[in-house]
Amino acid sequence: MRAHINIYLFLMVCLLSLNVTAQTIITFEQAEQEAIEKHPVNEQQKIYEKMLMTEKEGLNKDRLPDISLQGKVGYFSDVIAPVDPLVGQTQIFPDIPKTQWNTYVNVDYAIYDGSIKTKKTTQKENEYALKIQENEVKKFNIKEKVSNIYFSALNYQEQEQLLQEGVIKEIENQLKEVEALENEGAVLPSVTDGLRVEYYKAQQKLYSVRAQKNGALKALCVWLEREGEWQNITLQRPLIGQSSDEIFRPELQMYNLQLKQTESTTDLLQAKRLPKIYAYGIGGFGTPNPYNFFEVNGDFYYQVGIRFAWTPFDFGKNKKERQVVEIQKEVINTEKETFYKTIASQIAQVEGNKEQLEQLITQDEEIIKLQEKNLVRAKGKLDNGAATSSQYVSALNQLTDAKLNLSSHELQLLHINYQLAMIKGQL
């Protein structure tokens, strides 16, 4: 007997565990995090890192010597020859061929290049940092979209719960009482039918709200890559505190990095104006030897040394390029100022809506107290036959509407607090 009881208890625990795990609770923070982690934009950072490493490796190759292999063959209409034919007959001056060829290796190594390679590396690093910050801006926009869907689904979820618990169950309980009174002949069938009509109307309203909730949950699950789980998901109200006055939007850092990128471009342009010093070497084989025409049968030759290169005059091209960069800086600064004004305008608008909602919530609480008293009176009249079922359900609907308004306004206030924090970049 005890064994049967233990098996029964074990089965009950398993069933309860299944019921508990059937619904998956997704918090607001979890939804935002999952949406970003599973979005393709999250992979872009790894791609940018790989791109930077590859580009830096390429720039490091520029620090190595430049080695090139060249060759040529040609026919010359004239070659060096003695004017006096007697000199040629003495074979002191060789007969230089008019068909000549040579091949050689040319090696160049930059001893000083005006730090161009270092400037290019800095520019690539700044470009990478800018791309990463632009990626953060994209993530910020994803959070905004997901938050709107989450709060919409949460609003419908709470409306569904209020309709289910506050209206339908109450009508069901009242319907049982009225049906019992009808069986005893205390009330007319029309009273029961009227209550049933109101019950079906409440069910229709519930179905409408549930459909809207399901649509919002499906949209949310697309972002979370949980398309097959939307029926088992429950949302929770987030806890969002008051935001400070400081602005930490990722766009501001993006503008700063854009300015830094223009500065690195200016540094690179200035470095291109500096003189360059190279060590060089040339070695090859030619017929005749280009360094000694008397070696007409072919010979090896080489040359090593240091060369200097500088372009002091470029007709103002470099200067114009730097002026273009300065104009780009001005454009970035104006975009930054415009962004600040947009943020200030958004904050002012949202704070105005926040004050309005706080007043509405205070009024909602007072309305609910009055409607609760009205419902108690309507139920008493219905029980005593002094009121119709329609009057009772009307009072019940008014109370439910007041609770729905309170729930909706509370969620809107919560969403506005979130929006304020998001506008300021504090989340």
TrEMBL record:
Q: Which residues form a coiled coil?
A: 317-374
Q: From what superkingdom does this record's organism come? A: Bacteria
Record keyword 4Fe-4S present: no
Subcellular location(s): the record lists:
Cell outer membrane
Signal peptide from the UniProt entry:
1-22
Q: Which UniProt keywords apply?
A: Cell outer membrane, Coiled coil, Membrane, Signal, Transmembrane, Transmembrane beta strand
- SUPFAM superfamilies, from UniProt? Outer membrane efflux proteins (OEP)
What is an example of a GO molecular function annotated in this UniProt entry? efflux transmembrane transporter activity
Give the record's GO CC terms.
cell outer membrane; efflux pump complex
Q: Which Gene3D superfamilies match?
A: Outer membrane efflux proteins (OEP)
Q: What is this protein called?
A: TolC family protein
